[in-house]
């Protein structure tokens, strides 16, 4: 039955709202549909047909080989080198006094894994069991040699000696940090580069999101990993439950969370050895962060091949995924999708170059869509 317009009354409980001419339809956020794993669909971008293959549905990860030509890849690497590459820094947990002892099973002693986790959480240092045994022996910590650190053994140790040992150890072995890479930020609106603009347009056509989201946050992050370079498993975005505002809405330096609805990852070279992108918990039924961290699988030097989804780096390929669910009631972005946990596996030989293109969306829809609200730059 067709509804007859012009008969709206408040009594019907119908929102008479505004007339159609003044009605502003807020843009909504949508996702591409991967259908099922292995599904291949054609996407036409700038007049050229590309094939998009579904690699995973939980989270949805889509792959487009030859998204960039070899020349485009080389060009982006050149632009980044010209701009200058700097060490990547992750949000390092506080080095100040408050170390949270991770006695997971509350038996008042720290197993090797529990001590490793304590160090990971407090210092952003990812050690193996061998590293820990070296520390125990060099500091004489494990007096009875049972590889457990009892409460007495822990309290008998000057915390400063442990911190000094860790600082020295990681200074000599930077690959023990959660991330080891160099990076540059490229802003198409600043550098007016024809090829970068074309790539940007291709991304806009691919994702089908309101283009203002991409125009306002137009940057690409180009990353170079050398031998032993990696990025342990992490989330690109933050949970809505985190109370801090989105980083693209605050002045830099303020405490904030990344709000990255979508990740577009571009592979810019052939890697000689290693360097895949891994999604350790893709397709898991459930996810428990504590037991995952206890398993050590966050470490993508050691556990790359244990990941449920491993995507090899191939020059020109793009993969895309959504770091958040959609909220069907608002048509906007919802809570973060934990299954997007991912990282860059260790590079075993040669270098790896990628570009990250994040599509930033916050829980403040009006700000994101307001052309006059200028975002903060990374
Ligand atoms: O290097 C990769 O494959 C993944 C990089 C990544 O996850 C990131 O830069 O956030
Ligand atoms: Fe990432």
Automatic annotation (TrEMBL):
A molecular function (GO) term: procollagen-proline 4-dioxygenase activity
Cofactor entry: L-ascorbate
Pfam family, one: 2OG-FeII_Oxy_3
Keywords: Dioxygenase, Iron, Metal-binding, Oxidoreductase, Signal, Vitamin C
InterPro entries per UniProt: Oxoglu/Fe-dep_dioxygenase_dom (IPR005123), P4HA-like (IPR045054), Pro_4_hyd_alph (IPR006620), Pro_4_hyd_alph_FE2OG_OXY (IPR044862)
CC per GO annotation: endoplasmic reticulum
Domain Fe2OG dioxygenase: 216-361
SMART domains: P4Hc
PANTHER family: PROLYL 4-HYDROXYLASE ALPHA SUBUNIT, TRANSMEMBRANE PROLYL 4-HYDROXYLASE
Stated name of the protein: Transmembrane prolyl 4-hydroxylase-like
């Amino acid at each position: 039955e067709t509804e007859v317009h012009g008969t709206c009354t408040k009594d019907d409980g119908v929102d008479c709202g505004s007339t159609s001419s003044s009605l502003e339809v807020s843009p909504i956020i949508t996702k591409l549909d991967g259908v099922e794993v292995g599904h291949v669909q054609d996407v036409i971008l700038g007049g050229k047909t590309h094939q998009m293959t579904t690699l995973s549905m939980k989270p949805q990860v889509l792959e487009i080989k030859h998204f960039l030509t070899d020349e485009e890849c080389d060009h982006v690497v050149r632009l980044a080198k010209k701009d200058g590459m700097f060490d990547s820094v992750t949000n390092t947990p506080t080095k100040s006094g408050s170390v949270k002892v991770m006695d997971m099973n509350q038996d008042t002693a720290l197993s090797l894994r529990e001590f490793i986790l304590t160090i990971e959480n407090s210092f952003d240092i990812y050690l193996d069991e061998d590293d820990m045994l070296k520390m125990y022996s060099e500091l004489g910590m494990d007096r009875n040699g049972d590889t457990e650190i009892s409460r007495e053994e822990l309290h008998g140790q000057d915390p400063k000696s442990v911190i000094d040992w860790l600082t020295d150890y990681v200074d000599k072995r930077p690959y023990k940090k959660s991330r080891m890479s160099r990076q540059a930020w490229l802003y198409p609106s600043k550098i007016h580069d024809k090829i970068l603009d074309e790539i940007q347009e291709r991304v806009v056509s691919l994702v089908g999101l309101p283009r203002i989201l991409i125009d306002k946050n137009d940057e690409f992050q180009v990353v170079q990993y050398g031998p032993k370079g990696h990025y342990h498993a992490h989330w690109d975005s933050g949970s809505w439950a985190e109370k801090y505002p989105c980083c693209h809405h605050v002045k830099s330096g303020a405490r904030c969370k990344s709000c990255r609805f979508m990740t577009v990852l571009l592979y810019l070279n052939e890697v000689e050895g290693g360097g895949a992108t891994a999604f350790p918990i893709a397709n898991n039924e459930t996810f428990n962060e504590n037991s995952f961290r206890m398993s050590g699988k966050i470490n993508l030097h050691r556990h790359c091949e244990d990941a449920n989804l491993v995507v090899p780096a191939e020059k020109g390929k793009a993969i895309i995924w959504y770091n958040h669910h959609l909220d069907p009631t608002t048509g906007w972005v919802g809570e973060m999708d934990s299954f997007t946990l991912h990282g860059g596996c260790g590079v075993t030989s040669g270098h790896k170059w990628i570009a990250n293109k994040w599509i930033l969306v916050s829980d403040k829809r009006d700000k994101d869509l307001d052309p006059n609200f200028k975002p903060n730059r990374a």
